[in-house]
Amino acid sequence: MAKKSNSIISPWILFAAGTILFTSGWLMKSFPLLIFVGIAPFFAIVDQGKEDDRFWNLSELILAGLTISFFAAHLFQVQFLVAAISQSIALTLAFVGYAFAYQSLGNRLGKFTIVIFWLGIEYILVKTPFRNQIIFLADALQLQSGWQHWNVNTGYLGSSFWILVTNLFIYLGILKEGKINWMWVGLSILFIAGPIAFSLMSEGVSISRMNMLTLYNGDGTLLSKEYMERGELIPRTAAWVSGLLILVSLVKNKTKK
C-alpha cells in the first residue's frame, strides 16, 4: 500500500500559491525575491502522489502553473504563448522524471533530483537553436546583476541553481511536514542573503545572459578565458547526471518486472 503523504495542504492550494508567487517573481524583476519561493509549492505537489499513479494527473497542475508563470515572464504577449507552453512542458519533465525515478529507486532519491533534472533541461535548451527565445530561470534576476558577481565561477545558469536550491529549502522548511522546520527556514534565509551580501561586497562584473548566448552561438572570442573553458558547468554536469539517473531507473524498473 502506498504511504500517505505528510503534506496536509490541498494540491489545488499549492497550485494557486505556486502560480501566484512564481508569476509575481517574474513580474517584479526590479526586486525579484518571490522567485526564491515561487517554485516551492510545486515541489510539494509532487508529494501528493509520487508513490502511485495519481501524480500523473497532479503533474497537470504543475504544467498549468509553470505555463501561466512563463507566460507572465513574456509579459502576457500572445505571440509567446506557444513558447511558454512548450517550455513549461519541458520543465514539467523535471518533476515527472523525479516521480518516475522515485517509483524505481524509492526513498534514496531526494527532491534535489528535481533541481538536477531542471538544470539538465535548461542546459539542453541552451544547446538548441531556439536558445535566444528561451527564458531561463536565471533571467528573473537580470535586473539584479549586482547580486551575482559570483557567477563568473558558476556560469550564468548558476543563478538558476541558486533559485532552485533556495526553493527546495523553503519547501523543506515550510511545506514538507505541514509545520515549520526552523533549521531549513534559517538555511533558506542564509542561502538568499549570503550570495547577495558576498556579491555586493566584491568587485567585478557578472556573467550576463548575453555572454552565455554569445558563447553558445559560437562567438565567444571576447569572453573571459575561464568562462570559455568552463561554459555552463553546473547545468552541463546536471544534464549528465540526469541521464544517468534515468538510465538507472529504467534498468531498476526492468529488473523489478
Description:
The chain has 257 residues and is mostly helical. The protein has helices at residues 11-27, 40-46, 54-73, 81-105, 112-126, 158-175, 182-201, 209-216, 225-230, 233-256. The protein has ten helices and no strands. The protein has one domain.
Entry summary:
This protein has 257 residues and is mainly alpha-helical. The chain has helices at residues 11-27, 40-46, 54-73, 81-105, 112-126, 158-175, 182-201, 209-216, 225-230, 233-256.
Mean pLDDT: 90
β-sheet strand percentage: under 5%
The major sheet is characterized as: none
Helix content: 55-70%
How large, in whole angstroms, is the Cα Rg? 18 Å
Computed structural class? mainly alpha
Order of helices and strands: HHHHHHHHHH
Global shape: globular
Continuous helix count:
10
Poorly predicted tracts of residues: 1-7
- Separation, N- and C-terminal Cα atoms: 18 Å
**Can you count the beta strands?**
0
Tell me the domain tally.
Answer: 1
